[in-house]
Amino acid sequence: MSNNQGRCSSSPVIAVACTLALFLAQSEITQAKTFTVGEASGWSFNVQSWTRGKKFKAGDALVFNYDPSVHNVAVVDINGYNSCSASPSSAVYSSGNDAIKLSKGRNYFICSIPGHCDGGLKIAVDAA
């Protein structure tokens, strides 16, 4: 009888453990945040200081709002960031309202319109 009782009493423990695991997985997914780059000013010149004081995580989304006839957003590596140039393999967005998910580590974004990145239209974002 004690064996049956032991098996039956473990079922609620397993159910609680599974429920807790699902809850934690879901809460981690729902913790992703959305940030609007540049706030009300949007993706515009001298946006580099916008990241100060913010904490980003992998999976968070950055929304880039801008006039697509004037700017774009290119996801680049450190070399593209430093040289203000997008490579042929860079993802380039041009809708004027682009949501881009952050990867873990440092993420680099520039405007690839000539002169714009050099004029300050670039950001580097660290995501935990």
From TrEMBL:
Pfam families in UniProt: Cu_bind_like (PF02298)
Keywords associated with the record: Copper, Disulfide bond, Metal-binding, Signal
Coiled-coil segments on the chain, per record: none
Annotated Gene Ontology cellular component terms: plasma membrane
GO terms for MF: electron transfer activity; metal ion binding
Leader sequence segment: 1-32
Matching SUPFAM superfamilies: Cupredoxins
Location of the Phytocyanin domain: 33-128
PANTHER family in the record: BLUE COPPER PROTEIN, PHYTOCYANIN DOMAIN-CONTAINING PROTEIN
UniProt protein name: Basic blue protein
Lineage, opening ranks: Eukaryota, Viridiplantae, Streptophyta, Embryophyta, Tracheophyta
